[in-house]
Specification:
The structure holds two protein chains of two kinds. By secondary structure, chain A is an all-alpha fold. Chain A has two domains: 15-68, no CATH class; 79-310, MetI-like fold, CATH 1.10.3720.10. Chain A has helices at 16-22, 24-47, 70-77, 79-99, 101-112, 116-127, 134-144, 151-158, 172-199, 204-212, 217-241, 249-255, 261-264, 267-277, 281-310. In chain A, helix 3 packs across helix 15, helix 9 (172-199) packs across helix 11 and helix 14 (267-277) packs antiparallel against helix 15. The longest helix of chain A has 30 residues, at 281-310. Chain A is globular and about 75 Å long. The two termini of chain A are 12 Å apart. Chain B is mainly α. Chain B folds into two domains: 2-56; 80-310, MetI-like (MetI-like fold). Chain B has helices spanning 2-8, 13-56, 60-64, 78-85, 87-119, 126-138, 143-152, 159-164, 170-183, 186-194, 199-210, 212-228, 231-236, 245-254, 268-310. Chain B is globular, with a radius of gyration of 27 Å. In chain B, 40% of the residues are buried. The chains are: A mainly alpha, B mainly alpha.
């Protein structure tokens, strides 16, 4: 970050009041965002204490009787704890392991294309799925992979990728694959933008030098382009780790059906089911808070590891 | 690095020449591989989209039997006719347009000034305020407390909640801040200050006109979010008349709610067999408008993403 050198040095210490008066215009410009975040992020954080309280309609969120870890214990001891945690973790880990490298590889491929017209065409096409809403995406999955007459499920059966009687939408064992695969299809192109942008900042002198040195194209990708991407990769990876238990509610919820529930009930959909739909407010809060704490720990760990290994981190 | 070594060592020139010839072949293989892979990616991305288009104008019976694969068969436009007659879809459309226009306008009005303030190097509190924002990216109170907060504010089932919800997204805020900080020369600010310019005037007269690229990024991110959002409508809106398009789509596409309108004069069997055609038409009608936005902002967009995100 540049900038701190710009602070005017006057030698005298100034009080908060002076800065408020001095920067009041900036504060005015910040105010709506600060107030919004306060209401919609920090008040709910304060309200998360509901996880430790009984909820009653008269006393509201913060007035109920303090019950400590009762609802956490209830969750940890329930049969849903193991299955929701496992499902969430499997979906998340698979998404990261398979989904994270995809845009990087795509960006490297696109960057290698010599024909400008074809490059443009590929780039524009791979962006399109990003604009498709989750609702439409899930209905596309439902028709393309339908048990009977689904074009893509028929194709996969023809190639013997899946057995003849497979029901890709209705069977729990295919859920993770369908979820992750469709996710990659949708976001691979869009996520590659940031890598393509980073690649465009490569110093062309490096290419010339490598050519003189006799490096072939693969070596140039491996030793020039890939290293350029590493800082971006690390930052995005840390941010992904911070969401390890944050499997997006949107798509899972829509892809859920009674047949695949054993693989598709994740923590966020479970929180919705118990917390909002069946109004077990305290229990839902406890499950949600547990997830957020775990996520936060993962984020800190990933950030710490990244700092150790590559010297760059988020915080 | 190794360049100088290579240039200095003349005796190795021959070896190097050999190498270049060798890599000539491997480069050709590499080039071919890249093209094959790019064609593969292209087809994988494009085919599902193409299929929806051909299925929307083909005979549904044939589609359901898996007989429509590459080209439309037995072309008919029944699906689109039905969609254009359906009042639920138009109601959803109108609501979505309200949410997208009002919501995105609010997003920009909140995000841009805040981004400007946070970009000012002489703003002493900026690190504290930044932490205040960034923390919410990684920690939240959870769904239930948020739901109860919104409910306490009396916003459940109002149009307001779908406009004001996520008025400022921290990630987008950071992009805008980074852009303003890196691409608008501070000299401009100093010159403006000498002329007695306030932050407000400077922001409005200088920063905004120079931030077209990042504004188009923000427009796109926020606009697509509002257009595609069904989750917040599902959680915070229980009134059918306030439903955005995506909720209507969910009912039609995923909950298989019958397509009733305009079927008065149509034979039952015919309507049934074409019900699926309607679904494909719905998918297209709901996606095309947002797709049309992209080419308009594309020019600025890639520039904006580059400056706003990479250097962040």
């Amino acid at each position: 970050m540049r900038g701190n050198e710009r602070i005017i040095q006057t030698g005298k210490k100034k009080g908060i009041g002076w800065y408020l008066a001095h920067d009041w215009q900036l504060w005015v410009m910040l105010l709506p965002a600060v107030v919004y975040i306060f209401i919609f992020c920090y008040i709910p954080m304060y309200g998360a204490q509901l996880a430790f309280r009984e909820y009653s309609f008269e006393t509201g969120i913060t007035g109920g009787k303090w019950v400590g870890f009762k609802y956490f214990e209830q969750y940890f001891n329930s049969s849903m704890f193991g299955s929701t945690l496992r499902n969430t973790f499997i979906i998340s880990a698979t998404s990261i392991i398979l989904g994270f490298p995809a845009p990087i590889i795509l960006a490297l491929i696109i960057n290698q294309l010599r024909n400008a017209k074809w490059k443009r065409t590929v780039q524009t096409t791979v962006y399109i799925p990003y604009f498709i809403s989750t609702v439409v995406l899930v209905s596309m999955i439902n028709v393309l992979f339908a048990k009977k007459g689904g074009v893509l499920s028929d194709f996969m059966k023809m190639l013997h990728l899946v057995p003849e009687n497979a029901n890709l939408i209705g069977q729990a064992k295919y859920f993770v694959g369908m979820y992750v695969g469709s996710g990659i299809w949708q976001s691979m192109g869009w996520n590659s933008i940031i890598y393509i942008a980073a690649l465009s900042s490569v110093d062309t002198q490096l290419y010339d030098a490598a050519k003189i040195d006799g490096a072939n194209r693969w070596q140039r990708v491996r030793h020039i382009e890939f290293p350029v991407l590493v800082p971006t990769i690390m930052i995005l990876l840390i941010m992904n780790m911070g969401g390890i238990l944050n499997v997006g509610f949107d798509k899972v919820f829509l892809m859920q059906n009674s047949l695949n529930l054993s693989a598709s009930q994740v923590i966020s959909t479970y929180v919705y089911d118990v917390g909002v739909k069946s109004s077990q407010f305290s229990f839902g809060s406890a499950v949600g808070l547990f997830t957020n704490v775990v996520n936060f720990i993962f984020l800190l760990a990933a950030n710490w590891a990244s700092k150790k290994i590559t010297g760059s981190g988020l915080m | 690095m190794t360049v100088t070594k290579g240039v200095k060592d003349l005796r190795k020139t021959e070896v190097r020449n050999n190498k270049i010839r060798e890599t000539g072949l491997s480069d050709r293989i590499f080039g071919a591989l890249v093209i094959v892979l790019s064609i593969l990616c292209f087809l994988i991305i494009l085919y599902p989209l193409w299929f929806v288009i051909i299925a929307s104008i083909s005979n549904s019976d044939l589609v359901n039997q898996g007989k429509v694969t590459l080209w439309p068969v037995d072309v008919r436009f029944y699906g689109f006719q039905q969609v254009f007659q359906d009042s639920r879809i138009w109601n959803g459309y109108v609501n979505t347009i309200i949410y997208v226009v009002a919501g995105t306008a609010l997003n920009l009005a909140v995000t841009m000034p805040a981004a400007y303030a946070l970009s000012r190097p002489d703003f002493r509190a900026r690190n504290v305020v930044m932490t205040y924002f960034v923390f919410t990216m990684y920690f939240s109170g959870g769904l239930v407390p948020l739901y109860m907060t919104i409910s306490n504010l009396g916003l459940i089932s109002t149009k307001w909640i779908l406009i004001i919800f996520v008025a400022v997204n921290t990630y987008n805020l950071i992009i805008a801040r980074t852009f303003i900080q890196n691409s608008i020369p501070n000299d401009l600010y100093e010159a403006a200050i000498l002329d007695g310019c306030s932050h407000f005037t400077y922001f409005w007269k200088v920063v905004i006109p120079l931030s077209k690229a990042v504004i188009s990024v923000e427009l796109l991110y926020y606009g697509v979010f509002h257009w595609n959002d069904y989750f917040n409508a599902l959680l915070y809106n229980y009134k059918e008349s306030n439903e955005p398009l995506q909720m209507v789509l969910r009912r039609i596409l995923l909950l298989n709610e019958a397509f009733s309108s305009g079927s008065g004069g149509v034979q039952g069997g015919y309507a049934q067999s074409s019900a699926d055609q309607v679904k494909y038409a719905v998918m297209i009608v709901s996606t095309v408008p947002i797709l049309c936005v992209y080419p308009f902002v594309q020019k600025y967009f890639e520039k904006g993403v580059m400056i706003g995100a990479v250097k962040g």
